[in-house]
């Protein structure tokens, strides 16, 4: 690539506030929909996202084999409630779609309290919240409710109804490919299977949609593939149908829970030191607050599939708070007031910076390697000596010192401890002053070790 | 090896208490004997151990060369005492064999207090304890006594007598080989040269004897060689006579001081990352309490000889408290009440687990590497989603994720942070469900690095 | 080299106090001179140093190209002052040469307070100190003074005079080469361009001069090149004229600020694990107080030039306090009372120890590698067993254990945690006792990794 490309990002503050509001608005739009791993909720959500980007919808019939899995029946639900003896609806799917176990089998029966209890999930430690529970692959019916309400229930009888259908249909996912100069790809994926949970993962769906929209308006070096698919089965569907495209993935990020005030958090890919792992570690080292980088572990979101041993792709997970570590996780408290425009904006900015690194990383070669060049006569060094040196000057010195053709800008940022953007800016200034040439495009490669 | 072999150990609690009592009983039996690096004490001890295992006794004549060393004269002692002016025995070997310097030359003389003092060892910091002292290779006579008693001694004269003999004879050691399917060996060694010191090393002798007895009743893959030999000279005698056998040693543990309440402690072999080093580090990471792993240093027990540069064998040292770090060390306080059945049992369990790893480690290969297999329909995954995941499920996910043919079970335990036994159990369940195959037997090898 | 060479250094205490006084005396002699990057001050200083060693003076004409740089005009100053309205000299170069901006252009004018302020530098945070400021490559005039005095200045007018000359002349540096058996070189360099600053760098100039004097009286294996040159431009001048000699540099130390009570500090070369980096890290690990080792960064003294990517020489920086981190740095408080004979002596001792390692490091090969040799019969081991072992015995055991032909003495000191001098002494004793042979001279090489 041409090192003249300005890799200097626009001011984060401006980016963050505007985009953060826009992400929150889109997340709010899709929040009320009852999604599951199949069914109308996924399609409704994709319809909304498709107002922003030219989304391709993929439908795979029930019964199709996806590696070790089979596409399940399609689940669609109309209503669900529990009525007490007086006919009063004590829980109602219409009020909160978490009240029904996701993928619940249909039921219409009158049951006593004891039988009801075997089908009700609560959170004794958080007695006012409704839990989120699923039962995709074991056919059963069930409800979720606040523990406090549950404990006060009289003996019954209760009329329970889940007006749902499990029938042959399709698995649905959405895909958007932004083509760049190169066929090599950067994968960005968010799961679309959770019902009304704002952080997990309306936030990720909305962030990636608006990011795809921004990329669609610019030219890029790499191609960017966005996937909005149900967790596990959706990722397997994409992988099963796209083994060739999978082999073109140089970098990947799973994006979820990006709207809360924790973190930021990055979980490395199984490879552990892939380019995306290094880029994210560098960005989170310099973020405010400093982020947390975790080693890969085989539990979480769709990085589980992309990082399975047969694929072993360089795909990491980006979040604010790590899943399972915040009290709102998988409860009715993961609502629209839990996610904030500010944090959504910061998350957007971090993902965008990772893209900037993947796009803009290059390996400078000093044209003046014997001793330092005289920066002063080029206006790149303070005229008065004896004082302390600022970060911008340090970045110039680091880039020159490491411009031996074996250090990419990312490697320089890693070794110097300076932010990538500062290093990239220094390299551009030095290149503009005729002090740096390029070795070759080394974006996705590790720099060779020092000889 | 066949991965069907159940590597799941029996419940530690049951193992520990029974075997701990048995080890303590055997240690108590050999405790009173006055051992040294040669002589009748060693033979008497071996006689007792031979009631449990078919021990081979090796005798090497005085004067034989063992590398840089020469087999010394055989030392045998009948009695030793100091009498005061009134003929009262103020110290008596018959009461505690630590009272005489081990290998003391014979003496029978009447001496003044000043001369006596030059031959008496005490511990001013621990005035009530008798120290343990030796003088193997400098011929002199001497006594050890409590400092408090020593300070109260009147002027004398004193009659001193060491009725001992230093004469041509033999160096004696015991050896037991349990043959397995393979000629490759696991060495287990305890020193037999210390007199009445319970932890150092009646505990090690008793533990290894009962472990040998247990192994003698089962089939193993590896062969197990047990050596009960005097420190330094005994190890050199074995190495000198067994250079071929030494080359077959894949793993080795020196076992001493395994009955106190400290540690557990493992000191790495000189190689530092041998299979035994990795296995012990993994076990002590997960032990209760968590153990301490030390880098090799060339002072201690017979790992000094096995890890000398000409042999450089993968032999580490296993202890509870590290030698020299507990106040009872090399004093009369290292007695039978200092060692406890509970700690002896835990030590036994840890050594046995190391053997299980050496026996049972294998390298799985996923038969379903593209994405995760569907564990749910095999009953290996919770039916209800949305909740936290337990350690047993995490072990299944880790094994599947790392089953790329480059990670042995031990490597999986290391990377996942899960106990080896949990990983081994998960691998067995996955194998039983047809999800794992085997690459080959890689027990003693490091897994190849990830490509 | 012959391992018989006694690498045991003389007692540090004796060395330190005598040499510390001598270094302080020489530093005091050169302290008053107004040095700059060119001019009479450099020559005067070299004249004084040349009383101790046979210094070669190199003069390079103004206008010569040195890589990206050009030799500037020569600067010489006779007097400089500011007079107030009453004709009183409020600052006078004759009193303290820091009062004039180093390399100030000539001026003789009458100016108001406002104009004067634009040419005066002060330290508001340290109002009683005069700062040190330079303007080498931007032609301007200027003064430095105490902020307290500056703030009390009335309106003026002021007569300002800098009677200086900027004219074609030469860049001057001094060089001394002590030839050893080998052509391979150890570079020792101190900057000579700072005016009356005692620590920075009269201390370094004086230390290296007396070290050169000491070396001139002995035979060495390596050759030692001492360079006394102006910062940056002087190092570039030497490198430009000596590319062949530069390729012979195996080890190098920049020496500055070696007289204060902080540190000691070592900043690694760009290579990071060069022999000199390992030697200095080992020495500072064991120094009293323990020193600090920093990774390379491209700001500081002439290691910037030696470690530029086109040279990438193994040259580190040795200091007491790191530059820029002590309050006296680049102020009039960096005077002769700030540097102390004791610290100068300790610094000398540390540099000398680094030389001892470069001279004396060798790779022993045990002649008795099968088990341990019997040290006791050679008088190298305590006759009475059972007690704790001292550091000297541990050094013997470590050397024997690592004498596999793959560990130099330095590698042994690193792995054992024992001081290099202790290891070297043990190796000598073992060699004298016929227990060690030599592999070959491996002074400058890393030991091969363990196979």
Task: Characterise the protein shown here.
The structure is a homotrimer of 451-residue chains. By secondary structure, the first copy, chain A, is of the alpha/beta class. Chain A has three domains: 12-69 and 170-360, Zn peptidases (Aminopeptidase, 3-Layer(aba) Sandwich); 74-167, Glucose Oxidase, domain 1 (3-Layer(bba) Sandwich), CATH 3.50.30; 364-438, Arc Repressor Mutant, subunit A (Orthogonal Bundle). In chain A, 31% of the residues lie in helices and 20% in strands. Chain A contains 13 helices and 18 strands. The first copy, chain A, has helices at 12-30, 40-49, 113-117, 147-151, 198-216, 233-241, 243-246, 275-286, 303-306, 341-360, 391-402, 409-416, 420-432; strands at 56-61, 65-66, 69-70, 74-83, 89-92, 107-111, 120-121, 143-144, 158-167, 170-178, 185-191, 223-229, 249-255, 265-267, 292-294, 315-319, 364-366, 436-438. An eight-stranded mixed β-sheet of chain A has the order 1-10-12-11-13-16-14-15, sandwiched between helices. In chain A, a hairpin with a 2-residue loop joins β2 and β3. Chain A is elongated. Chains in contact: A-B, A-C, B-C. At the A-B interface, α6 of A face α11 of B.
Q: Any descriptors?
A:
homotrimer; 451 residues; alpha/beta; Aminopeptidase; Glucose Oxidase, domain 1; Arc Repressor Mutant, subunit A; 3 domains; 31% helix; 20% strand; elongated; disordered N terminus; disordered C terminus
How many strands of chain A? 18
Number of helices of chain A: 13
Structural class of chain A: alpha/beta
CATH level-1 class of the largest domain in chain A: Alpha Beta
CATH fourth-tier homologous superfamily of the largest domain in chain A: Zn peptidases
Q: Write down the domain tally of chain A.
A: 3
Average of pLDDT of chain A: 93
Oligomer: homotrimer
Pfam families (chains A, B, C): DUF2172 (PF09940), DUF4910 (PF16254), HTH_47 (PF16221)
Domain DUF2172 (chains A, B, C): 74-164
Organism (chains A, B, C): Chelativorans intermedius
InterPro entries (chains A, B, C): DUF2172, DUF4910, UCP015244, UCP01524_HTH, WH-like_DNA-bd_sf
């Amino acid at each position: 690539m041409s090192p003249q490309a300005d890799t200097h990002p626009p001011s984060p503050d401006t980016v963050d506030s505007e985009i953060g509001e826009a992400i929150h608005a889109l997340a709010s739009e899709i929040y009320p929909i009852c999604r599951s791993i199949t069914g109308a909720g996924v399609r409704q959500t994709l319809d909304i996202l498709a107002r922003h980007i030219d989304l391709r919808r993929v439908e795979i019939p029930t019964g199709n084999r996806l590696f070790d899995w089979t596409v399940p029946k399609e689940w669609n639900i109309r209503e669900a409630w529990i009525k007490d003896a007086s006919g009063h609806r004590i829980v109602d799917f219409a009020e909160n779609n978490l009240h029904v176990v996701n993928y619940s089998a249909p039921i219409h029966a009158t049951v006593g309290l004891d039988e009801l209890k075997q089908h009700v999930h609560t959170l004794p430690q958080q007695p006012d919240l409704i839990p989120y529970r699923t039962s995709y692959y074991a056919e059963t019916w069930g409800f979720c409710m606040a523990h406090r309400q549950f404990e006060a229930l009289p003996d019954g009888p209760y009329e329970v109804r889940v007006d749902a259908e499990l029938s042959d249909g399709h698995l649905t996912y959405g895909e958007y490919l932004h083509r760049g100069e190169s066929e090599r790809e950067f994968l960005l994926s968010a799961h679309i299977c959770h019902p009304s949970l704002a952080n997990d993962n309306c936030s990720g769906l909305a962030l990636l949609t608006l990011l795809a929209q921004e990329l669609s308006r610019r030219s890029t070096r790499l191609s960017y593939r966005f996937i909005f698919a149900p967790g596990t089965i959706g990722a397997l569907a994409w992988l099963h149908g796209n083994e060739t495209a999978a082999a073109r993935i140089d970098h990947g990020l799973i994006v979820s829970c990006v709207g809360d005030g924790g973190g930021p958090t990055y979980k490395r890919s199984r490879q552990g030191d892939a380019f995306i792992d290094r880029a994210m570690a560098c960005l989170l080292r310099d973020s405010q607050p400093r982020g947390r980088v975790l080693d890969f572990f085989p539990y979480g979101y769709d990085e589980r599939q992309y990082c399975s041993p047969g694929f072993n792709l360089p795909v990491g997970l980006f979040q604010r708070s790590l899943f399972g570590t915040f009290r709102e996780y998988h409860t009715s408290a993961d609502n629209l007031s839990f996610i904030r425009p500010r944090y959504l904006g910061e998350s957007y900015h971090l993902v965008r910076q990772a893209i900037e690194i993947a796009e803009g990383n290059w390996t400078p070669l000093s044209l003046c390697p014997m001793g330092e060049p005289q920066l002063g006569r080029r206006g790149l060094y303070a005229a008065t000596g004896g004082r302390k040196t600022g970060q911008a000057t340090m970045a110039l010195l680091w880039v020159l010192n490491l411009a031996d053709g074996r250090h990419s800008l990312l490697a320089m940022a890693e070794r110097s401890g300076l932010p990538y953007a500062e290093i990239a800016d220094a390299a551009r200034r030095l290149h503009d002053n005729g002090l740096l040439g390029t070795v070759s495009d080394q974006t996705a490669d590790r720099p060779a070790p020092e000889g």
